[in-house]
Amino acid sequence: MYSELFQKTYELLRWVYPVVNKFPRKQRLILSQRIEVTTIRILELVIDLSESNTADKMKKIMHEIHKLQILFRICKDLSYMSFKDYECASVMLNELSAMLNGEGYGKNLRKFV
Fold first, then answer.
1. Statement: residue 51 has pLDDT above 90
2. What is the 3-state secondary structure (H, E, C) of the chain?
3. CB 39 within 8 A of CB 12
4. Is residue 112's pLDDT more than 80?
5. CB 60 within 8 A of CB 98
6. Measured between alpha carbons, how far is 2 from 49 in angstroms, rounded to an integer?
7. Mean per-residue pLDDT for 6-14?
8. Confidence grade of residue 85 (pLDDT, cut at 50, 70, 90)
9. Contact, 69 vs 93, CB < 8 A?
10. Percentage of residues in the chain with pLDDT exceeding 70?
11. With 90 as the cut, is the pLDDT of residue 53 above it?
């Protein structure tokens, strides 16, 4: 599970940078930085999860994913990102959530906030 979770998180991080670089200049210092930091935090927590898979660590990752969902929704609502990018982010975050919950892909995915 770890290697697949790491790969999906890494792909999310790679996807985030070009998307947030398109934000208006003023927002690059606020929202885009918060999104980047939160995504990196998720990757760090996934790496920590490889050392010891605990419910507490998984809960922390889910909390960061939830924060990222809200940040993406704000960006979409303020038209800093396209609906297509928002949808792509939603799918990636839902996949990560499903993997952490042991649901597999496509099963009972938690709806994007």
1. no
2. CHHHHHHHHHHHHHHHHHHHCCCCHHHHCCHHHHHHHHHHHHHHHHHHHHHCCCHHHHHHHHHHHHHHHHHHHHHHHCCCCCHHHHHHHHHHHHHHHHHHCCCCCCCCCCCCC
3. yes
4. no
5. no
6. 8
7. 95
8. very high
9. yes
10. 89
11. no
Domains belonging to the chain, first-starting first, are 2-100 (1.20.1440.60)
Residue whose entry in the numeric block shows the structure tokens 């490889």: 50
Q: Could you tell me the two tokens for 91?
A: 């799918």
Output the six-digit token pair for 83. Answer: 């609906």
Whats the size of the chain, residue-wise? 113
Global pTM reads 0.84
Here the tokens at position 61 are 């990752």
